[in-house]
Amino acid sequence: MFARTPWHCVLVLCLALGLAACAHGPAGPPAAPSAAAVAAVAAREEAEIESEVLEPGQVQPAPNPFAQRGKAAYDSKHYAEAVADFTRALRLDSGDSRSLFYRGQASLRLGHAAEALEDFTALARIRPRFAGASYHRAEALVELGRLEEAVQEYGAALRLAPGNSRALKARAAALTRLGAPGQAADDLNLVLARNPADLAALVLRSHVHQEQGMPGLADSDLTAALALAPERSDLFLARGKLRRDLGLIGAEADFTRAMELAPDPAEALRQRAALRLDQHRPAEAAADLDALVGLAPADPMALVLRAAARFAAGDSARAAADYGAALALNPRLVAALLGRGRLYLALGNLPEAAADFGSGLRLDPANPQLLLGRGQALTGLGFLEPAESDLTAALALDSGLAEAACARGKLRLAQNRPDEALPDLDRCLAADPANWSAALARAQVLLRLGRAADSLAAAERLANAAGTESGDAAFHVALARILALNPQAGPDAARLALRHARRGLELDSSSAPALDALAAALARAGQFPEARNAERQAMLRLQGAERQTLLPAFRERLGRYLQNLPAEN
Question: What is the CATH number of domain 230-331?
Answer without folding.
Answer: 1.25.40.10
